[in-house]
């Protein structure tokens, strides 16, 4: 679920922006479904010049925008690795993924993202990926991560 910044991609759909003292300090792109069933936040970024809680402000404003535009629901998006249990009795895959998650926390704040989104009291729904087991699973996960976070070929 880790996207990249691509200016051309951002011009293809709605983008919410926040300004502070006349300067752009934050934005969030929105995926809008057909027939206005759902709007979903996608790429979110803010600058060091942004005031505290600017992203909460921006998401609240995007929710109001989606409501005014007639969308039935607003989706806050996924929280990668949120359902991984940390326990000695957890399945082996959870234990391995938990190690990956802890190592990745220095690059991406998984728990912070969940805490941020929890402020909105969302209805959490699990998402699953069914795959082959064994040694092929980490390769599959790495390929999916590369597809999501790598720049597309031009």
Explain what this protein looks like in three dimensions.
- With 154 residues, this protein is an alpha+beta fold.
- It has five helices and four strands; from the N terminus they run αβββαβααα.
- Strands 1-2-3-4 form a four-stranded mixed sheet, covered by helices on one side.
- The two termini are 21 Å apart.
Q: How is the topology of this model organized?
A:
Elements: H1 7-10, E1 15-20, E2 23-32, E3 38-46, H2 54-68, E4 73-75, H3 92-104, H4 110-118, H5 136-149
Parallel strand pairs: 3-4
Antiparallel strand pairs: 1-2, 2-3
Largest sheet: 4 strands, mixed
What is the share of helical residues? Answer: 25-40%
Percent in strands: 15-25%
Instruction: State the low-pLDDT regions, or none.
Output: none
What is the distance, rounded to the nearest whole angstrom, between the alpha carbons of the first and last residues?
21 Å
Q: Label the structural class.
A: alpha+beta
The strand line-up of the biggest sheet is 1-2-3-4
Count up the helices: 5
SSE succession: HEEEHEHHH
Rg (C-alpha, Å): 17 Å
Give the strand tally: 4
Average per-residue pLDDT, rounded, comes to: 80
Shape: globular
């Amino acid at each position: 679920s880790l996207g990249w910044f691509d200016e051309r991609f951002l011009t293809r759909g709605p983008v919410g922006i926040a300004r502070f003292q006349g300067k752009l300090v934050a934005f969030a792109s929105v995926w809008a479904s057909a027939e206005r069933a759902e709007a979903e936040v996608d790429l979110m970024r803010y600058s060091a010049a942004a005031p505290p809680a600017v992203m909460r402000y921006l998401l609240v404003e995007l929710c109001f925008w989606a409501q005014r535009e007639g969308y039935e629901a607003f989706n806050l998006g996924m929280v990668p690795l949120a359902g991984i249990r940390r326990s000695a009795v957890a399945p082996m895959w959870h234990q391995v993924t938990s190690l990956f998650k802890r190592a990745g926390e220095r690059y991406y704040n998984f728990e912070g993202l969940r805490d941020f989104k929890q402020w909105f009291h969302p209805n959490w729904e699990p998402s699953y990926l069914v795959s082959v087991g064994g040694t092929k699973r980490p390769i599959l996960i790495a390929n999916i991560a590369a597809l999501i976070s790598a720049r597309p070929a031009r």
